[in-house]
Amino acid sequence: MINRLSVTQKLVLSFVFVIIVGSILLSLPISHYANSPETSYLDHLFNTVSMVCVTGLSVVPVSKAYNGLGQILSMLLMQTGGLGLVSLIAFSTYTLKNKLGLSDQDLLQSALSRDNQKDLKAYLAEAKQDNKKIGFVPTMGALHNGHLSLVQHCVKNNDVCVVSVFVNPTQFNDKHDLETYPRTLEADCVLLESAGCDYVFAPSVEEMYPEPDTRTFDLGTVSEVMEGAKRPGHFNGVAQVVSKLFYIVEPDNAYFGEKDFQQIAVIRAMVKQLDIPVKINDCPILREADGLALSSRNVRLTPEQRQKAPLIARTLKESANFAPEKSVQEVIDYVINTINADPVMRVEYYEIVDGNTMESIKNWSDTTYPVGCITVYCGEVRLIDNIKY
Ligand code: PAF
Questions:
Q1: Helix (H) or strand (E) segment spanning residue 313
Q2: Closest atom of ligand 1 relative to the 296 alpha carbon
Q3: Which atom of ligand 1 sits closest to the CA of residue 139?
Q4: pLDDT in tens, 106-162
C-alpha cells in the first residue's frame, strides 16, 4: 500500500508526522510551564529542539534506491534535519541570552513590560499627544482576581491602561515580610495581557529610588491610626511610591481596591496635598466563594489556616446583621471575641471609624459612613478586611 503512494504523498505524510510529533514535543513543556511559572520555558524549548537536532543529524538523501517505507523514513529524517537547523538558532539564542545575562523573564515579557521610566514616558507621550485617557493601576504584583478587577475597570474607562508591578521596599516595616512577599512577574504579565492591559511598568528598586526618598508626609489622622499606628512608616512609604508613580505616569484615573480601605484615604490625602491632578477610583473587595477577601498574602496560608481564614469575613457580616441595635462597643467586642475564640487567629485591631476621616466613632450617630476595619493574624499571616455598616 505504501509502495502505491506517489513521492509527493509520501513527502506530505512524513511532513505531517514531523509536525504532529514536533507539536507534541513542544506543547509538553508549554503546559508544564503554565503550571509552574518558576520553571523556565526557554530551557524546555532548548532541550526539546536539541533532541530534534540529534535525531535529525542523520540526514539521508531521498533517492530512487529507497522505496515505500524507506522513502518515507528518509524524507522524515531530512525534515527533522531541517528542524535541527531551527534548534541551532534556538541554541544561539539561548547562548546569547546567557551571555547577555538576560533572564527568561526579560525575553518573555519584552512585548508588554518595560522596567525603565524613559520607555514608559516615551510610550505615554504618544498617547497623550493623541488626547488618550490614561488609566493606571499600581500593584506590588502576585496578582489575583482582585487586581484583575481593577485592571478591568481601568481598561473599560480609559484609552490606555498602565499597570505597575513594584514591591516597594519603603512601605515594609518588617524585613521578613519584604523578603517573603510573593514575586511572580512572569505569571503577572500573562494575566495582565489577557486582561487587556497595554503596558506593564516593572521597575527595579534602583530605577524607582536612584537616591533614597527622604520625603516625610504629614497627612494627619488618616495615616496615623490603625495601620498607621501598627506599621510605623508604612503609609509614608506608600505615599512616596504612589506619588513617584503618579509623577511618572501622569494618569487621568488611578484604581485602588477597597480591601486596603485606609490606604485609599491616605492616597486621597496625599494627592490633595501635592495637588496631583488624578482621579482616585475605589473598587469593591473581591472575595473567594467562602468570603475570604482576595489578597496576595493568602498563598502563604497553610491548608488549615486557609480553612479558618473565612471566619474574619463571616464574623464581620454577622455583626452587620445586628449592628444598629447594639452599641458600637458591643459590636467591636463581638467581632474581636468571636475571631479570637479560634486559637489559630489573633485580632490585632478592630475599629469602627468614619469612612472618610478614619476617626474612631463611639456612637453610630457620630457618622453617616461607619466602616469597620480589621487586621487579624492567621498564624503568621497578617490579613486585613473591612465592612461598611
Ligand atoms: O496596595 C498596594 O499593592 C501597594 O500599597 C501600592 C498601592 C501598589 C503601593 O506600593
A1: helix 311-322
A2: 3
A3: 8
A4: 544 556 888 999 999 999 999 999 999 999 999 999 999 999 999 999 999 999 999
Beta-bridged to residue 352, according to DSSP, are: 372
Please calculate the CA angle 337-351-273 and round it to the nearest 5 degrees.
160
For helices 7-35 and 41-56, angle between their N-to-C axes, nearest 10 degrees: 150
Q: Which ligand 1 atom sits nearest the alpha carbon of residue 167?
A: 10
Contacts of 268 (CB under 8 A, 6+ apart): 222, 280
- Edge-to-edge strand order for the sheet containing 113-114? 113-114, 199-201, 160-165, 134-139, 253-257, 279-283
Cβ count within 10 A of residue 256: 20
Q: How far apart, in Å, are the Cα atoms of 261 and each of 56, 257, 380, 386?
A: 61, 7, 22, 7
Residue indicated by cell numbers 500500500: 1
Residue 291 near residue 314 (C-beta atoms within 8 A): yes
* Closest to 381 measured CA to CA, from 316, 277, 320, 298: 298
- 171: Cβ below 6 Å to ligand 1? yes
Contact 319, 335 (CB under 8 A): yes
pLDDT tens, position by position, 6-57: 777 776 767 676 667 666 655 554 444 443 333 345 555 655 666 665 565 5
Distance, in Å, from the CA atom of 85 to the CA atom of 73, rounded to the nearest integer, reads: 19
Give the Å distance between the CA of 1 and the centre of ligand 1.
68
Q: Distance from the CA of 166 to the center of ligand 1, in angstroms?
A: 8
Is the beta carbon of 140 within 6 A of some atom in ligand 1?
yes
CB 164 less than 6 A from any atom of ligand 1: no
Catalytic residue among 32, 147, 153, 176: 147
Q: Ligand 1 center to residue 271 CA distance, Å?
A: 15
Tell me the pTM. 0.74
Beta bridge partners of 75: none
Query: In 3-state terms, what secondary structure has residue 363?
Result: coil
The question of whether 176 is a catalytic residue gets the answer no
CB of 245 shorter than 6 A to ligand 1: no
What's the gap between Cα 333 and its chain centre? 36
